[in-house]
Amino acid sequence: MRNKRKYIRTTGIILLFCVALLNTACVSKQKEKVVLELKQGLLSLIPLNQNAVRVQFSQPGSAPMEELIYTEKLPVPEYEVTEDKQSLVLSLDGISVEFDKGTEVLTFKDANKRIILQEKVGGRFMKVSSVQNEPTYQVEQRFVSPKDEYIYGTGQFQDGYLNIRGLTRRLTQVNTQISIPFILSSKGYGLLWNNYGLTDFNPADQFVELTPTNASGEAVTVNTTGTSGNVRETRQTYSFTASVDVPRSGSYSLLLDVGQRMARKYYLVIDGQKIVDVNNLWLPPTTSAIVELTAGKHDIEVQGERNDKPVLYWRPVSEETVFRSPVAQMLDYTVFAGNGDEVIASYRELTGPAPMMPLWSLGYIHCRERYNTQAELLENAREFRERKLPIDMIVQDWQYWGKYGWNAMKFDEDRYPDPGSMMKELHEMDVRLMISVWSKIDAQSEVGKQAKEKGYYIPGSDWIDFFNPDAAAFYWQNFRTGLLKYGIDAWWQDATEPENDDLQNRRINREQTPGEVYRNVYPMYVSKTIYEGLRQDDPDRRAMIFTRSGFSGMQRYAAATWSGDVGHDWETLRRQIVGGLGQMATGLPWWTYDAGGFFRPGDQYTNTGYHEQLIRWIQAGTFFPLMRVHGYMSNTEPWRYGEKVEHIIARYLDLRYRLLPYIYSQNAAVSFNGSTLMRPLVMDFPEDRFALEQNYQFMFGPSILVAPVVESGVNRMKVYLPECSAGWVDFWNGTPHKGGIFTDVNVDLMKTPLFVKAGSILPLGPQKQYASEETEQPWEIRIYPGADGSYSVYEDEGINYNYEKGQFCTFDLKWNDSDKTLTISDRKGSFAGMKERMDFNIVIVTPESGTGIYQSKVNKSIVYEGKSMVISL
């Protein structure tokens, strides 16, 4: 047995030990961290939580980063340090990190001492660099990635990859791409790369610049949208070519950079084989793919626009994961140990919990580009109610400011003569309003002239400099006086990247700092300004912020995101689902998309092929954290598409509203427990290889497996049912199925495959027209037999922050499968307006009962008055 030195736990006392004849010169153990002095710099191990350790590698005298992510002031966790001649180990209850004195490699282990992550030998890199003639560092860390590892995250991307092990990505903020430097692994860890600027994930250093040839294809005129409004553009496709010579056969990761701030087309062909073919009016400047190449020369063709300057980067896929940032003060990352829920919960505990979303935000959100007048908006809200189509929120998109200039913080009275009466009428219909507000302000508007005079713009742009606290306060002051007074319910902060990655080569915060340092965190500053302003000036109403971009920690500002201005085709639908699941793996829990696609065909109202797409978009979106429709230059209301489409959409609106007790209870789990509602399968089935390979299936809460239809003309599809000891039950017909198998499912336009885990209890509410509608109809408690199960129901007022004062209630449902009894616990807690008496219809699901959207055969009806009950069935 090796001799070990054990460091005692200390409270503020620094213990310094110098070790001779090793690369490690000395070790200091402080209350909050352990610092190892290496020849190359200082390596700090910082316990953050019982399952989280932060690692920093810096040069002596380096200034610490401004802390934007880890904002929660938690006590320093107790930890233990042991040492022998070969290693030093820092241990907490849920994670340990071992420093090898010979190789200087860090190895991370979970509570069972199983290796979950390891640095590569020589994989720590820090190099002096500069940005805008100011000193900085380029940093890089390489980790070992076994072949059987599956990695998820880095945010919402448009490349279509859910498992990103080995994939090259460039993390910048642009329309349709949300970059979050966080990954979640099937090996039982999460990793947050603590850098606010551009980050390359698995960077490829080999590249080839493509040469333009001739234009190909006819010129096409299209409608597009951006910060300057609606524009018609003429576009023509151009061809670019090159060749690469790879040294050996195998898998290669490719990153195509079109050479502009935004792309309109990805078209990559290698040796005549199409690798990528994506068109949209907005695309990020880079996309990625993994391909198989044989050793030798390969011909490359890229198609794009005249001014593109495409570069193809490539690297062999190997057993490593790499993070690199060209602008940094130090190398800085945090490792979280545990399953998906444990990782995300720990991340939120350190970076801030997600506040409860309002109950009404979890119903249906109806949006279009755009309502042109107050009368038009009200007319459509009334028609939803007249047609008995459930809705909770209608959205006013841009340009309501009219003659006053872009985002002037006021309504043009020529088209919106009385916003106050508009809000009053909407609220009388129990409809909420979300309104589009931008971080860009017309410099010629009244507000813009003041901002310009005070120096509150980012120089050379129309974007407000939210990094300047005075500029942020100015923005909120005008927001409050111009818009908040009307009682508007939710705030759509559009283009918060800022659009087109616009901080590059600019100065921020009174021109004190290069924009590259904070290149990816502008959306968080915007959301912070709005959320903190709402909490101060509208404290009695629960905030909801809707934004097009995000960053780690932004969940604490009640911010939800969506996938940006995307197309409508099947491939785009598939990529949005994958992108949303990628964001869910990073800890930001609220997300949706433009159901039906933002850019739609000109004949959308009569095109039956598009109707099929629209239905499938809406069916999938029913099981997203937020359910929303949107479309460019479109009247997106369901009745515009004919009776058949309207009927199917109505059914899924009914299903969404029936699921609200389940969804709202999960809303509480997100906020109180750090849970995730839309769940990539790695969160629940990390050891099931077949589950990990499903790109489009996901769990909706703990019980419902969703398998969206993502192709045309499907009447039968293969669904994988993950390994689950009790199996699964078909939601639509009550048929039980074993877990760990593929099953063929009959599909028609009315149904998307849904399966419920055996042993689940689903609380379903009555049909409603809006989320808070009072009704005397009973809840339906569906029990899916085959295993014991439980579910905790949560309720509160749904509209304010009284839950933060303990004003909410919960009760537990527990199913005993062997003796067929349901136990309902005592109700715990209370809140204003709580129903003392609740009627429940209890249904045991079989092929004959408890199937589909609507209530059916009841096993037993009971009255629950808050006291424990045992019901035999």
TrEMBL record:
GO terms for molecular function: carbohydrate binding; hydrolase activity, hydrolyzing O-glycosyl compounds. Residues 44-201 form the Glycoside hydrolase family 31 N-terminal domain. Keywords: Glycosidase, Hydrolase. Residues 778-846 form the DUF5110 domain. Residues 355-666 form the Glycoside hydrolase family 31 TIM barrel domain. GO terms for biological process: carbohydrate metabolic process. CDD domains: GH31_N (cd14752), GH31_xylosidase_XylS (cd06591). It holds the Pfam family Glyco_hydro_31_2nd. Its EC number is 3.2.1.-. Residues 674-762 form the Glycosyl hydrolase family 31 C-terminal domain. It is an enzyme of class 3 (hydrolase). SUPFAM superfamilies: (Trans)glycosidases, Galactose mutarotase-like, Glycosyl hydrolase domain. PANTHER family: HYDROLASE, PUTATIVE (AFU_ORTHOLOGUE AFUA_1G03140)-RELATED, MALTASE-GLUCOAMYLASE. Belongs to the glycosyl hydrolase 31 family. This is Glycosyl hydrolase, family 31. It comes from Bacteroides cellulosilyticus DSM 14838.
